[in-house]
Amino acid sequence: MAITLWRPTYDGSPPTWRVQLVLAEKKLKAQEIAVSMDDKPEELLDINPRGNLPSLRDGYQSVFETNAIIQYLDQAYPQPIALMPKRREAQGVALTRLNEVSNYLAATFVAVWRYKTTVAPESADPKRMEELVGALKLEWMRWEKYLECEGGLYLAGGAISLADLSVFPYLASCVRHGLHLDTRYPRLSIAYQTIARRESVVTTWPASWKDTPAEPVFAD
Ligand SMILES: N[C@@H](CCC(=O)N[C@@H](CS)C(=O)NCC(=O)O)C(=O)O
Q1: Which of 16, 36, 53, 65 for mutating ligand 1's site (highest number of atoms within 8 Å of CB)?
Q2: Rounded to an integer, what distance in angstroms lies between the CA atom of residue 61 and that of residue 54?
Q3: What CATH topology corresponds to 3-76?
Q4: CATH 1.20.1050.10 domain residues, the chain
Q5: Closest CA to 14 of 179, 166, 212
Q6: Contact 75, 95 (CB under 8 A)
Q7: Does the CB atom of residue 51 touch ligand 1 within 6 A?
Q8: Is 12 left (phi over 0), alpha (psi -120 to 50) or beta?
């Protein structure tokens, strides 16, 4: 069945990248439709009245909200790799982390970018920016501790799961913009380097990152 993914016109958007990673892990091809936020096509609004991105259609099935999409894909396409742990306890951890990504990690990340992109440089308050960046760095410390408690490379159940693939785009974006992992977040650093080598990551790496300069938003 044909899969269609509606995505923003820019690449590297973490919610969409989360879906692209899962599609790539599942070896699924999707037709991608880039949507401008100011001009949402009827076809998108028909399947998702909120019109937010990513949105997905798989044959007659439409799914939106990133967590719903990736869990749908994992259940509908259990091969070639299952991305939820089999053990009930680890499933509970993975589901919790998925919701934490959407409700807390994404919110602190978006707060930084919204301030950066909506407040003109001449009226930006450096203290406010410092607070927002500080909140995101604190959030990363929480994820560092989660890895420490799990005692390995992955967030739930000892193998890669939807949870790790969901955190990765946010981490990659922060690293691109100057976040240093090695000293403050040693476990996140190893997990990041390991996941970055996966084929799914290499094939979905945002094309524009290769030729647009990053800004040192998170540099110490
Ligand atoms: N709760 C949504 C949030 C996704 C989201 O923030 N999407 C942004 C693009 S990165 C968006 O569609 N913004 C425009 C809008 O909501 O109209 C999800 O998890 O999928």
Answers
A1: 53
A2: 15
A3: Glutaredoxin (3.40.30)
A4: 88-210
A5: 166
A6: no
A7: yes
A8: left
Whole-number average pLDDT of the chain: 96
CB 152, CB 188: distance < 8 Å: no
Residue span(s) of the chain under CATH 3.40.30.10 come to: 3-76
Produce one character per residue of 114-146: b if its CB has 16 or more CB atoms within 10 Å, e if not.
ebbeeeeeeeeeeeeeeebbeebbebbeebbeb
Measured between its terminal Cα atoms, the distance across the chain in Å is 48
pLDDT, one tens digit per residue, over 27-52 is 999 999 999 999 999 999 999 999 99
Tokens of 163: 């949870």
Task: Quick: pLDDT tens for 54-89.
Answer: 999 999 999 999 999 999 999 999 999 999 999 999
Enter the pTM of the model: 0.96
* Cis peptide bond upstream of 186, omega within 30: no
CATH code 3.90.1750.10 for 88-210: no
Query: Sign of the C-alpha dihedral, residues 60, 168, 10, 119?
Result: positive
**Helix intervals (H) in 40-196:** 42-47, 66-76, 88-100, 106-118, 126-150, 162-176, 186-196
Find the 148 Cα to ligand 1 centroid distance in Å.
30
pLDDT of residue 213: 81
